[in-house]
Predict the 3D structure of the following.
Amino acid sequence: MDGFVDYSLQRRALLREVYAGRVGMSEVCDASPYLKSAARFHGEATEQRCPICRREYVLNVHYIYGDQLKHAAGQARSRAELAALASTLGEFQVYVVEVCRGCNWNHLVEQYLLGRAHRTAPPLSEAGASAATSPTGTV
């Protein structure tokens, strides 16, 4: 897909550092109140457990940015809203952040372009999230 960036390698490297004790939990479990609220109201459920607490399933939050969005830039939106915006706007950027509401883990998963200029459908965040772990579910 044109304009697609997958952050799974960075995620794996960061988790390796956490598991090895070189990066503290407070550095990776630092979701802001705004991000936690966005996850609560706009988060997309996944089947992936949090890599830190392993109790909760992470939620994917889709943030939108672009000149044509005006005041809506920087807001979290559902996938249905993304599809509607993609049919009406020329181009905008989507950033997908995974969030654990239990321990406050958060990490940028992927980013991509949407809009009439990019006729392809947005990637399923589940695909990006599943690519972020190995087949065994470990890093």
User: Anything to note?
Assistant: Residues 125-139 have pLDDT under 50 and may be disordered.
